[in-house]
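User: Structure tokens for this complex, please. No commentary.
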Amino acid sequence: MADYIVDATVDITDVVCPITFVKAKVALEELKIGAVLSIRLNDGEPVQNVPRGVKDEGHKVLRLIDNEDGTYNLIVRKENDE
Amino acid sequence: MTLTNEQMERYSRNIILREVGVKGQNKLLAGKVLIIGAGGLGAPIAMYLAAAGVGVIGVADADDVDLSNLQRQIIHATSDVGKEKVTSAKESVNNINPDVTVNAHRLFVSADNIMELISPYDFIIDGTDNFPAKFLINDACVIAKKPFSHAGIIRFTGQLMTYVPGEGPCYRCVFKEPPPKDAVPTCRQAGVIGATAGVIGSLQALEAVKFFIGKGDLLTGSLLTFDALSMSFRKIKLPKRENCAVCGESPTIKEPFDYEQPVCDSQTHIECYGNP
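Assistant:
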């Protein structure tokens, strides 16, 4: 059961590092503080690095959902406007 | 302003930085910078600012590219010899980044045209090679309340400082007047290593980037000096001068004026470090 409502989604499965993180960051910057973004990303490098990247920027990772098709949905709440 | 996928990729290394992000990149894209002098300093400044995505870059220079320029003015190539420097610079910048609008101002900057020239720009960069131009740029920027970056290079050394209205000293606070003619050797007599121009010009480009993104500390109230032979930097704190003729409490300089222009003057006050 989800304890959040997704406000926006972004798909970064079509790009590779570092554009994965850039695309996620661009999507986050367009949101208001407190809004929730669902990021669809590939297994491997993206799922290792993107969650850490958004945490380093001060945002809150709410959940990482395995879609069981080689992709994940990373649910992030925007915490700051920096 | 929404970034295109191509812009996201082009500026990814900027955007990844916490201090830049999409907001900072958009500030750069909206930025308007004027570079006076498309020479040793102006070359790296224009190229790095173009690469960073500064939206409008004005380049002012009256000269044509000369073979002896190519040792340090890396924005120009051998095939550009004889071409207007502003045209050659515009072509190089457009090749680096077509996002950038280049305004080519083929003119000799003087008291008659400087106020109009600087007016549309947010940040001015002094890449000139002579004292009269440096004082002219300072006075005009102080009067017009425009932030600017000063720099000078000679031999293996260079210096730079940044003026922001209301923050710290202007160039004239530090160096009241141009030195007497012939007191400082000309660039032709003294020589300079091209990479020194690259170091100092790159630092000026960094000041412009920091100004636009609004992060970090600018060289306001400090002069940074560089000596390539000893590979050392020195940051000298400098106070604002209350009785400065242009930015002081009762200024006597209320409009820009031209000092007599020597044929080929040196571009620094390096010899004046101890006696600003």
